[in-house]
Amino acid sequence: MLVIDIKKQLGDLTLDVQLALPSSGISAVFGRSGAGKSSLANIISGLSSPDSGRISLNNSVLFDSDARVSIPPEQRHIGYVFQDARLFPHYKVEGNLLYGCNGKRTYLFNDVVKLLDIESLLQRYPHSLSGGEKQRVAIGRAILSEPALLIMDEPLASLDLPRKHEVMPYLERLAKEIQTPIIYVTHSLDEILRLADHMVLLNQGKVSLSGDITSVWGSPLMRPWLNASEHSALLEGFITQLHSEHPMTLVTLDNSQQGIWVKSPCECMEEGQKIRLRIRANDVSLIKQQPEQSSIRNILPVVIESLTEDKENDVVAVKLNLSGHVLWANITRWAQEELALEVGQHWFAQIKGVSVTQSDLCSK
After folding, report:
1. Mean of the pLDDT values across residues 329-351?
2. Of 44, 57, 219, 310, which is most buried, counting CB atoms within 10 Å of its CB?
């Protein structure tokens, strides 16, 4: 586990962070430009030092102002992937990769080359690579150093859209196949939805939210960061049934018997595979009694947990409990008044659309 309790003055911004991050999976650090995301990453890696506080990684102290401990960056066993690849121009790709493992091919070398699909690039120089290829090599070099922690500071930010699409599948594979915990700094919610297991919301130098991605995304504190069309819930579960006649898949939610039908995202699916779903609040409506016939495939029992009025947009955000999972519905004030909605009432949620944001289904 990475435990952080630090303070640092950055011009007009006071970075004041108390945080504990898991020792597995991808922890995304999200916030506006100037929130202190990259500064926090640099402090963790040792590229800069806090004014005061303590940082420990897996019970090893990296920084402690009281004890006057400050481990230098090269001794922290932390890999770092920057926005720009920062490859050595006079080394071929193979040389850049070997730099990460002290010049010798380790047992990991072939696996990492295969994972990132860079075998065909080994004898090329960085100047001949695309931006996406350079980033894949930079990621490979960082992994081959066998770090206890890998930091990625907006690794897709400098790439154009086609190159982002090129690199993203490799990041998804990386998240599934390597055991190294990753801190992923980004201002892209789309990248977080596809990659992250844990999410930290950093606002003006302080942590506003931190937790597993589904709980943070479902928090009311997250809603101001999203456009009305992006308000949604994240749900995780396992594939429990493949429809015999139609390209539909039943996903049973974690710790629940509740199932949701989704359009099959690909052909290489098997029962038991993990999957993450996103349901937009604008795609959820409420009905008092379950209809006998409907074209909507998912009509599920829910309980109203809260009602929050947004007068500016004439919308009421309804927080719903779906078998222990958070679901949101955006309805008009007129509908709320006419239906006399109140906290604690039992309704049915009609879900008109479901999208898959992350799964263990395919690896390219």
Report:
1. 95
2. 44
